[in-house]
Amino acid sequence: MEIALKELARLVGGVVSGDESVVITGVAGIKEAMPGDVTFLAHPRYEKFMQTTRASAVIVAPGTSGQDKPLILSDNPYLSFVKAVEFFVPNKNNYPRVVHPSAVISDSAKLGSEVAVGACAVVEDGASIGDGTVIRPGVFIGRDTEIGCDCLVYPNVTIREEVKIGDRVIIHGGAVIGSDGFGFAKDGDVYRKIPQIGNVVVEDDVEIGANVTIDRATTGTTRVGKGTKIDNLVQVAHNVVIRENCILVAQVGIGGTTEIGKGATLAGQAGAVGHIKIGDGAVVAAQAGVTKSVPADTMVSGYPAREHGQAKKIYASLQKLPDLLKRVAEIGERLAKIEEKLKG
Amino acid sequence: MEIALKELARLVGGVVSGDESVVITGVAGIKEAMPGDVTFLAHPRYEKFMQTTRASAVIVAPGTSGQDKPLILSDNPYLSFVKAVEFFVPNKNNYPRVVHPSAVISDSAKLGSEVAVGACAVVEDGASIGDGTVIRPGVFIGRDTEIGCDCLVYPNVTIREEVKIGDRVIIHGGAVIGSDGFGFAKDGDVYRKIPQIGNVVVEDDVEIGANVTIDRATTGTTRVGKGTKIDNLVQVAHNVVIRENCILVAQVGIGGTTEIGKGATLAGQAGAVGHIKIGDGAVVAAQAGVTKSVPADTMVSGYPAREHGQAKKIYASLQKLPDLLKRVAEIGERLAKIEEKLKG
Amino acid sequence: MEIALKELARLVGGVVSGDESVVITGVAGIKEAMPGDVTFLAHPRYEKFMQTTRASAVIVAPGTSGQDKPLILSDNPYLSFVKAVEFFVPNKNNYPRVVHPSAVISDSAKLGSEVAVGACAVVEDGASIGDGTVIRPGVFIGRDTEIGCDCLVYPNVTIREEVKIGDRVIIHGGAVIGSDGFGFAKDGDVYRKIPQIGNVVVEDDVEIGANVTIDRATTGTTRVGKGTKIDNLVQVAHNVVIRENCILVAQVGIGGTTEIGKGATLAGQAGAVGHIKIGDGAVVAAQAGVTKSVPADTMVSGYPAREHGQAKKIYASLQKLPDLLKRVAEIGERLAKIEEKLKG
To answer: Among the four residues A164, A185, B70, B143, which has the most C-beta atoms within 10 Å?
Structure first.
């Protein structure tokens, strides 16, 4: 596939600075790019590679310091690059739409048109799979679970019974959706299991990472809102509600019944206790331990998580703490001497 | 199914306050309940919903502030609710007891009576599965592994060779039991694998969450004690011994050879280094990093984990640290002025 | 199998102290050993068991305090023990080299000689598996993925398309290799997926733990260097480069594009943000949160991670912080009194 830079700029929402007639034949990262490739510069950290990249053109923000190379100027270079990748790289979801003979599909399951079901996948009674959805090998889909259209479920995923998955949802390998919530009532020394009779709802355009676990609700629904993206190894407990367009980075853990507001971000390994609310647009820094509700549009960090400006001051002060201890001891001695003197 | 409130109270170990003749037809959480449902109030946080719930009756602790609704008074409302759920909701483990023709079962494996083995599950040589146990699709059971009676093993679980699982154990999707312990001997710059020749023993009434990993012992046994409940994505290293009735919340990690005493609780994302002992009844707070043994019946928190009362004081003091630095600097200046004056 | 202690000492690179003629018939840990077994003492913590072990001989470092038992003196007792285990315990990778009839193998896949493929495993178009490699049941191997010789891939592992795995690699149950990197471009309020068109390369002699996730690169390669050992539930993000002979303990998370230098160690639950470099030979303590690059041969700990000596001082000082606050308040009062006095 090839395209003139001028044409590509139009496709990706940018304008050319430099030779518009350069022919582009592929896309690559700034370090890996070869002649013929378009690449991009989204992070100032990589500006040094502008000098050395072998790419034939670079997508940059307007005002990026002058280079000899042809540029595509874009207000959102990352998004423009995505559009370039989409142009050059075939859709990953182009699996042949066939049901493998080794797949085990209940007679009462409903498959839409153009559905693929991979080898050794299992679809149980009453489950339904929407048009254009691809189920890869080894996937388990439980009783009465509904999966929407144009989804892509990677190998060895487990989706338990009565789960509802929207359209265009991507679920990566090994994820488990609808496992029992972790609920036990103490009966003397012994824990007695609370039957988990709720379900999980995953709305449209959600992406769920590899080996993620999302528990079903005790009663009611555990919900993942439209457009939310969940990275690998994240834990979502029973009755959690995640609103639209949130980002949960790898190894995040959310306690039971907690609510994550629209557009919130939880960075890697952050944790939130149960029964709290993380406000709309809030940002939780990596490894933060959130022990109480976070107001909307607030960034928190540290353990226990505090407003980020304050936390940063505290963590910077920590460095001075050992010296401070010495200093206060010394001040105490000087003060005692003065007191002694004044007494005398 | 329907039952008079009077009768239900008897079943769940409570007494009615209000109209005993109300007919109950189901159970639900306080927010989702509809007329006909019984619900419960176990956490004061939800007391506000007592006014608005549509439930026909509520299970509460004696002394809960007066409501118009019929109540069941119970010393353990949560446990009473569990009993109500068990009455109304059919047992989850009611799968047809058949061996699917696509399951691959060794001729030398022994299956008890009333055993179910799901599609594409694999049971290897010499393995045994006790009466009434349900193995769901895609499960792998290795050579000479023994699984007890009335267990429920969810899809895509991997149980390696020579593991022993007791009775009434529940293992959620994607869990891996008996993977090699992480042991290497340094040989110059290179790490040489230490063969892991021990096993894993999981005692009766244990529940193991989705995508949990429990490593086999280097030599000897990694053990999970009777009645212990393990949440999703927990890591249990080689030679760990967990005693009875412990709670390990999601994403906890336990280092090799560490022992967890009876009835201990580790909250979410907590970690314990290897070769220590967490005492009976100890509580480790969420995200705590335990670097040395914890006495029985002690709560610890923070990193490194300290006795919780002390840790709470420290974390509260942290807030004042930036101001303290300024204050000590200012005190130093005032002191210097006095010293100057007294010298003069 | 039996062997005289003298002969065993030669095999494991040690020399006998005591009766060389003792016959050894097995290996075991110091607590589990029975008469006939050789055991080892690698950690001073276990020295107390030297008195009580039932083992017939013990592998120890030269200079270990005198015992009645026959000893093998070795400069690296742990490594000598590994060699003893290798002598007594049959290789774990001795599965029959057959392709199970229920495995689903593309006509265009290439299988070397002496390859085993387990029940319900799937090998897709263009994939290749080297001589002597064992693929266990339920494993998925994607299109054009190459797996080297003498590898062992445990059940229910997912290896996506275009991944390259070297020789003698061990991958434990449930691991996912080659899942999409977590990359999204913001388009208004909505996140738009960045197609992940790179791959993953796992070099020779790597071991990957149960339920580990290793994402493919956005463009280019996510790489795990020769001899590196990765414990369970570790997350390796897109474009990470891990050099040779590193150790990543359970539940570690590495952010995108970060580089881990040769021989580095990351202890349990540690995290590193993206776009940094952890130097050769560096050590990151358990639960540390690494927010900036770490120089070679440096140990860091805490959050945010600092040089370990400094961090230890800080964490020790923390204990005194509540008292320090009181002390400074009291000093302030005394100082005010003096100032008052001097004014008067």
So the answer is: B70
